[in-house]
Amino acid sequence: MPLPLFLYYSQRYSTVSVLESGTTTCCTSFCLLWCRLYISKLPPSKIRLISMLSAAVKQVVGRHAVQRASSGWAATQTLLQEQLADIREAGTYKTERVLTSRQAASVHVAGWDRPVLNLCANNYLGLSSHPDVIEAGKKALDTHGAGLSSVRFICGTQDIHKELEQKIARFHSREDAILYASCFDANAGIFEVLLSPEDAVLSDELNHASIIDGIRLCKAQKYRYKHRDMNDLEEKLRDAVGKSRQRLIVTDGVFSMDGNVAPLRDICDLADHYNAMVFVDECHATGFFGSSGRGTEEHFGISGRVDIINSTLGKALGGAAGGYTTCRRELVDLLRQRSRPYLFSNSLPPPVVACASKVLDILLASPELPQQVAALTKHFRSRMTAAGFNISGDDHPICPVMLGDARLAADFADGMLEQGVYVIGFSYPVVPKGKARIRVQISAAHSMEDIDRTVDAFITVGKKFGVVS
User: What's phi and psi for 262, nearest 5 deg?
Assistant: First the structure.
């Protein structure tokens, strides 16, 4: 091996030197000692030449290594660029507008010279920036710190975590509750624990992505029934009875993209008949749907019939973060032992816990809030329908304005912003192709005047794009 190349490799590798034969030999310290002794006997001109050659070899070898790494990335980069180009071409590329204010009925958007009405947040109760909620978060920051730097079962459980879990269980009239970093985690962590290959899970075809992913993780027999189709659900239950030990029907309480409500009474009746359990994701119901905000069960007057409720703290209940499962104590205990997202995720930060707890206090003391949301929703749906818009869903504050074309939905949302109303166009893959829409979400923070202004803006933009006449 030429001396410069030998010198380069001797310095590059910390434990061995690489020889021409590809074998490994003495440690680097011995090699360097030998090199120094050899070089010390050479004339100065040759020492300078060796240094120059060694530097050149190092540069060439280093560049070759970078090129090899880049060539592997280049193929992937091309694929990614093609996919992004396809998304842009289809008009479904999503951009993130930046807010420079708190979440509220009106917000400031970066690059916009005036506040705009916000009709696209999950802030259903309008409490995410309530002074008492903010103060509760500040106080918890002082008393309990910014975070726990730990998972729950090591040293990540504080008194306020247990208090919030108990408060959630009481709110839903359940035995116990368990907190997660998000409801996505709660949905990811329950099915694998509860169900085995001897069991069956029956899921609505339009359930949330987190439910779909959670079910994929379990080994149960999987059935998917047509959206809100009780005949199809019964057919699949009938098939599952002879093949399964236990059966779990899984549904969103309210479907977030369509604003329609699961026929929960009928689902519970079928569950009773076929000896099945019922699981409901209440993320778009907890706190504001039903006469006192206790969700889909309360809406149908069947409180207590659902076996498992998963929901979120990241929407109506403060809007910061977090999710939970509430059900019988035995299942909560098992989730604490085996639910992977719970076991391997850090605890919710104390300020988030305190904010959610305060929102529950406010909700219990202000039963008019859910009724206020319902009144605003009814007014919006009535005026929009009268104006000629196609509004999907049931009597729920998620009010999808159906447009069909993805590019039209994006352009329509831009036109609404020019009118001072912030909404977002939803298109594939969030919703099926050909079913793009503007999803309007009503909050208790809105006034009736805000709703009228929003409808007027829809009419103006709708006429511009030929959606209404």
Answer: -65, 140
Do 378 and 332 fall within a single domain? no
Determine the distance from the C-alpha atom of residue 245 to the mean position of all C-alpha atoms in its chain, rounded to a whole number. Answer: 32
Terminus-to-terminus CA distance in the chain, angstroms? 84
Determine whether 284 is an active site residue.
Answer: yes
Residue 83 lies in a domain: no
C-alpha–C-alpha distance, residues 376 and 296, integer Å: 19
Task: Choose the catalytic residue: 130, 161, 299, 315.
Answer: 315
Do 340 and 200 reside in the same domain of the chain? yes
Q: How far is CA 147 from the centre of its chain?
A: 21
Rounded alpha-carbon distances, angstroms, from residue 300 to 55, 253, 263, 291:
78, 11, 9, 10
The reply to whether 204 and 227 lie within a common domain is: yes
Is residue 119 within 8 Å of 441, Cβ to Cβ? yes
Picking from 327, 350, 365, the residue at the C-terminal end of a domain is 365
Q: Is residue 82 part of a domain?
A: no
Identify whether residues 192 and 234 lie together within a single domain.
Answer: yes
**Position 423 in a domain:** yes
- CA-based Rg of the chain, rounded to a whole angstrom? 30
Element spanning 223, H or E: strand 221-225
Active site residue 21: no
Distance of alpha carbon 219 from alpha carbon 437, whole angstroms: 35
β-sheet with 421-422: strand ranges across: 106-107, 116-118, 421-422
Q: Which residues contact 129 (CB under 8 A, 6 or more apart)?
A: 102, 103, 104
Tell me if residue 172 is catalytic. Answer: no
Sequential pLDDT tens for the chain (469 residues)? 444 444 444 444 443 333 333 444 444 444 444 455 555 556 555 555 555 555 655 565 555 555 555 678 888 999 999 999 998 888 778 889 899 999 999 999 998 889 999 999 999 999 999 999 999 999 999 999 999 999 999 999 999 999 999 999 999 999 999 999 999 999 999 999 999 999 999 999 999 999 999 999 999 999 999 999 999 999 999 999 999 999 999 999 999 999 999 999 999 999 999 999 999 999 999 999 999 999 999 999 999 999 999 999 999 999 899 999 999 999 999 999 999 999 999 999 999 999 999 999 999 999 899 999 999 999 999 999 999 999 999 999 999 999 999 999 999 999 999 999 999 999 988 888 999 999 999 999 999 999 999 999 999 999 999 999 9
| Number of compact structural domains in the chain | 3
Say which of 284, 358, 396, 446 is annotated catalytic. Answer: 284
pTM for the full model? 0.83
CATH number at residue 337: 3.40.640.10
Range of the domain at 54: 3-74
Among residues 128, 182, 210, 256, the one annotated as catalytic is 256
Q: How far apart are CA 396 and CA 285, in angstroms?
A: 9
Same domain for 374 and 360, yes or no, is: no
